[in-house]
Amino acid sequence: MGGKVTCTLGEVKNRADFIVYWGGNPAECHPRHFTKYTIMQKSRFLPRGRKDRTMVLVDIRETKSVKAADIFLQVRPGKDFELITVLRAMIKDQPVDDSAIAEIGLQRSDLEDLVARMKRAKFGVMFFGMGLSMTRGKHMNSAALLTLAAEMNAFTKFVAMPMRGHGNVTGADVVMRWQTGYPFGVSYHRGYPRYNPGEFSTVDVLVRGDTDCVFVLGADPGATMPQPAIEHLKRVPTIVLDPHVTHTSRLANVHITTAPAGIAAAGTAYRMDEIALPLRPAIDSPYPSDFEVVRRIHEAIRQKPDWRVRSPWIERQLDAAH
Amino acid sequence: MTNTPKSPELRVIDHATCTFCGCVCDDIKLHTDGNRVHKAERACVLGKAWFLNHTAERAYPDAIVDGREASLDEAIEVAAELLYQADMPLIYGLSNTTCEAQRECVALADAISGIVDSHTSL
Amino acid sequence: MLRIKGGRIYDPERNINGQVEDICIQDGKIVASVDEDAPTLDATGLIVFPGGVDVHTHVAGGAINFARAMSPEDHRRAQAFIRTQTTRGGIGGYAPTTFATGYLYAGMGWTTVNEAAVPVLSARHTHEELHDIPVLDKSLLVLMANNEILLDLLDTGEHERAKDVVAWYLWAAKAYGVKAVNPGGVAAWKWGHDAKQLSTPIDGYQRVTPGDIITHLARIVDELHLPHPMHLHCNNLGAPGNVATTLETMERLEGHRAHLAHLQYHAYGGDDWDSMRSAAAQVAEYFNASPHLTTDAGVVLFGDTVTITADGPWQHLLYKLTGRKWGNLDVENETGCGIVPYTYKRTNLVNAVQWAVGLELLLLIDDPWRVFLTTDHPNGACFWRYPEILHLLMCRDFRRECWNTFPDRIKQRIVLPELDREYTLLEIATIISAGPAKALGLNTKGGLAPGKDADLVLYSPNQDVAQMFSHPRYVIKAGQIVVEEGEIRSTPAGREIIFQPGFSPDVESYLRERFEDCYTMSFENYPVEMERVENPLIQSADPSGQS
Predict the structure, then answer these.
(1) Contact state of A179 with C319 under an 8 Å Cβ cutoff
(2) Labelling C178: which of A23, C80, C161, C449 has CA 20 to 30 A away?
(3) pLDDT per residue over A95-122, tens digit each?
């Protein structure tokens, strides 16, 4: 990560008078985002709530979220990076060619208005979704947007935040960072954590056919991954933990039914702004929790002879004993 | 194991947390009889479906090994052996689960010298 | 049971200065005697210190975890911790993984650490990380000096209610003490501003000034009888000429106890970056005459690191100065935090002055019971570089070797060349163990007398001081040998030390309403459940408690 200027969602609720959603459709994908955290909330600093806030939506098509927006900017597909780059230039009063703006599919006056509003804001925030981070440019789009937010702090207060989906995927990032130093795509082959997206990321590992056993939990790659990845899943021993028998379970050698997190299993989950929340289960599942099953598998492996390096201290004790 | 009859008594669980999307709303009021959630107040349409679609029914076998129903103990043994024998195991997913399970997954990856990766890499 | 036989004991509390004595251990404690047939550890010729205590470090929680995410390039070149049967895999470097943090601290003989800056909102996360730091005992301080609910109460002069609110927050976070960072400045940063004058009302408030926050919060901490005084990061950190603010801050404490964090960053003279100079002598003079204060040095060492602090506005300035990565995380109602990687260079005038000031303070403050070794990890340098600093403190010639390489224009701005003091071993044991333990109010730490926790470290005497302190012969934690000749031998779980002051029960209904206004989670889910805390050791102000 190159850096990130961000905040918890309460800061947006309390202060943000200028809110941008970029490449996301919160009305359908994060339905309570507007009402609980952003545009609809009243606060001591924004006592009139919605009336005190401006909402801009940037997307390649009209979604249901357009209705909530004051301003909708329809960017040409695949031109997000270009738009961010033009905005980065315009906030610094650098000249921008008409052709560059035409390529994005917007009018110069739209962008001048946007820049003026961004600078006038007392507290601006940009939420970005998979429409930005999973399309042409991918992580470079996210990095450019984060840089734009950082640079806006020369003029006023500005922050940015990814709209994370997929349940507790934020928790996975947070946990992996403190245990391995990296957020995802970590290899322990050398006995310590190494990180290399593209090398150790799942789709790449599967498509190359690098792995000889897959353990899947809290995901259904059999339903979502590209076909060559699924083909490899079929070839190698696969173990699935899930509350349901999933597509992946049907390809797997072992499926274990587990209690759904937060509904039947207690524990912790992280919100998209990395706030940890306790889970309060409501049903009494006949199945064990993921945690319990992983712990037991780990324990069963621990009972087997360890083929790895011993600590030098243990080696010396063994030597001394002989 | 048999499905023991649950008490029909209704409980209300307030301030429950919905993990369906990244909002992780923690102000949900769940009405439950222990077998299923009957009502998820304050949850959005996605959250309601999430809470109401899971039940305590034994809808699936405890485990399936090579296409046949198996006990949990057997499945754990087989899973452990497969992971232990593998040269380059991969642990993937970690989204719809708790941090406690995620921590244990990273520990497992460490123990078997494997790869651990989440949805983030997609 | 264990008898440590024939070691040379350094126990500052009892003024034992290298005398040979046996130490007996039973059930994790030091005891007067053990059975004749107890196992013996031959410590003949070895130096025995109480285990190190770090009064101010950043090892767990949202901020350091943000720094980890921002430093993959450092992880790649950092020390790798390869998994063994006793240890987890991990990475060292300037933002080590949790497991590596435990191994690195224990590996050099530190057995207790105080995580110095935790927003209550991320306390649950912080406890999860602390759980994954093996071996060490841990405590944490919660950030209070920019909490808007509290500032409102100070603005309207509701001292008693403010006191209850602080106590409730401590309870909710399962914390040990109170931290104040740039009082009022982080709240102003929420609008992109700062608070530079102690007597000017904070942005958005009628009356309350940074100076008021300092006075009131220090008083609240004293009235709640917290074992550790208010832990204060002064306003104007890092700015040339900030000595004036620091001296004014000490005045504004009005005789209340306080611990001044990383004083090095607050002891500069001059008017701008070009004229910046050391003001360590001025600060030390005032400090020496103020027995109610303790401090830690916050030493800077040359090299790469990452700076992390709740001082958001300072980090924005540092980002603009360096053009490097910038992380910022504002936390609703409570605080903020900024993260910027940084390289301290000996050829940089500002950095060279900073390097000198940290050492000058340690040498000019005459009571080793009131000034402690820290680097404000990872801000000034990483904690695993402490042995280098001990070498500098114990050896005037080594210091000269270092400052001699500076350009002349730097030598005129520092007083270090005039300082001949060399630390003794007993003084070292004081600034790394006995002193910080006392300042934290951890009565069972920092000593070798019967009744103390059996946390101790045994060094083989070595002319090379840095080598000696970085490679202990043995480290013992709660009576168990955890390190032997620089290698991790066992990794018992540590404990978390928690202090719970009492509060009036009606504070909850008051807070609930405020909370629902400005937070986004359920009030009921906010307090950390005690069962989530690893081996809690709960102290309370109630005389019937364990305190």
Answers:
(1) no
(2) C449
(3) 999 999 999 999 999 999 999 999 999 9
Instruction: Evaluate whether residue A130 is within a structural domain.
Output: yes
Q: Do A192 and C122 make contact, defined as CB atoms within 8 angstroms?
A: no
**C83 to B111: CB separation less than 8 angstroms, yes or no:** yes
Question: Which chains form contacts with chain C, at 3 or more CB pairs under 8 Å?
Answer: A, B
Cβ contact, residue pair B64, A172, below 8 Å: no
Residue A277 belongs to what H/E stretch? strand A276-279
Q: How many CB pairs under 8 A join A and C?
A: 183
B22–A298 C-beta distance less than 8 A: no
User: How many Cα atoms occupy the beta-carbon half-sphere of A191 within 13 Å?
Assistant: 14
Q: For C418, which DSSP code?
A: G
CATH of the domain at A239: 3.40.50.740
- B95 at A interface, C-beta within 8 A: yes
Q: What is the dihedral of CA B7, B13, B19, B23, to 10 degrees?
A: 160
Q: Tell me, yes or no, if B111 comes closer than 8 A to chain C by beta carbon.
A: yes
Q: Is the pLDDT of residue A321 over 90?
A: no
**A39 part of a folded domain:** yes
Q: pLDDT in tens for each of the 122 residues of chain B?
A: 445 555 568 999 999 999 999 999 999 999 999 999 999 999 999 999 999 999 999 999 999 999 999 999 999 999 999 999 999 999 999 999 999 999 999 999 999 999 999 988 77
Decide if A322 is inside a domain. Answer: no
- Looking at the DSSP bridge assignments, the partners of residue C260 are C232, C295
Range(s) of the domain holding residue A241: 169-313
Given an 8 Å threshold on Cβ–Cβ distance, is A192 in contact with C82?
yes
The reported pTM is 0.95
Say yes or no: A156 and A181 in one domain: no
Domain boundaries along the sequence of chain B? 11-52, 63-121
Domain boundary among A162, A177, A194: A162
**Which residue of A166, A180, A245 is in closest CB contact with B106?**
A180
Smallest CA–CA distance, residue B105 to chain C, in Å, is: 13
The count of domains in chain A is 2
| Averaged pLDDT of chain A | 93
Residue-level pLDDT at C544: 42
Cβ atoms A24, A127 nearer than 8 A:
yes
Can you tell me the distance from the alpha carbon of C114 to that of C57, in angstroms, rounded to the nearest whole number? 6
